[in-house]
TrEMBL record:
The lineage of its organism: Bacteria, Bacillati, Bacillota, Bacilli, Bacillales. Keywords: Membrane, Transmembrane, Transmembrane helix. The chain crosses the membrane at residues 6-21, 115-137, 143-163, 192-216. This is Zinc metallopeptidase. Pfam families: Zn_peptidase_2 (PF04298).
Length: 226
């Protein structure tokens, strides 16, 4: 019974957060920002105000596929946010600009996250294979290798949290200071940014819970061997 409740929890939390994000985003996509600028125009304005003339803005397909690419120095916005003039479009666009600003100033958690990318990729790709082998063969050593690999991926997610929250904080300040939104629009912009941040929180919580489950499995396996 506990096993069933566990899987219900790890499935429900991300689902509920995604539903909240989509509902909040959709609601604020219908509210035009007072500036009348598109997400791309707003992003360009804030980038220029921060001396980031070398950072380009590109349109990408998909929904909420927005991101900042530190290698190519490009802010990529999904079509709705690239062309949209809503509070949601501008909020998402400036959030990605927040990452570009972090990159410019050498924000420590962002640099640490970049350094973790190779290790996190290896952990994500091989942890489950190692864990599965460890469980099937009842090998505590193989299970431990899988746990270590998974821990690297989880660490990447944990480090992502301050990076995302800081980018949102920078975005909200920039939107107000640049006149992209009025003070009475700040609440809706904050809701969009917080909803997006919650997806990272939920993902991290689930990842930590999964990691702890395998740690407990490893402890139990060792105890059985003793």
């Amino acid at each position: 019974m506990g096993f069933i409740i566990y899987f219900i929890i790890i499935m429900l939390i991300p689902l509920m957060v995604q539903m909240y994000l989509k509902r909040t985003y959709a609601k604020n996509m219908e509210i035009d920002a007072s500036s009348g600028l598109t997400g791309a125009e707003a992003a360009r304005k804030v980038l220029d105000e921060n001396g980031l003339f070398n950072v380009n803005i590109e349109e990408v397909s998909g929904n909420l596929t927005d991101h900042y690419d530190p290698r190519d120095k490009v802010v990529r916005l999904s079509s709705n946010n690239f062309h949209g003039t809503s509070i949601a479009a501008i909020s998402v666009g400036i959030h990605e600009v927040g990452h570009a600003i972090q990159d410019k100033v050498g924000y420590a958690p962002l640099r640490f996250r970049h350094a973790l990318v190779p290790v996190a990729n290896i952990g994500s790709n091989f942890s489950w294979i190692l864990i599965l082998i460890g469980v099937i063969l009842s090998s505590a050593n193989m299970l431990l290798l899988g746990i270590v690999a998974m821990a690297a991926a989880v660490l990447f997610q944990v480090v992502t949290l301050p990076v995302e929250f800081n980018a949102s904080s920078r975005a909200l300040t920039a939107m107000v200071n640049s006149g992209l939104i009025r003070n009475d629009e700040e609440g809706n912009a904050r809701k969009v940014l917080n909803a997006a941040a919650l997806t990272y929180v939920a993902g991290t919580v689930i990842a930590v819970i999964e990691l702890l489950r395998f740690v407990l499995m490893f402890v139990g396996m060792n105890n059985n061997e003793d």
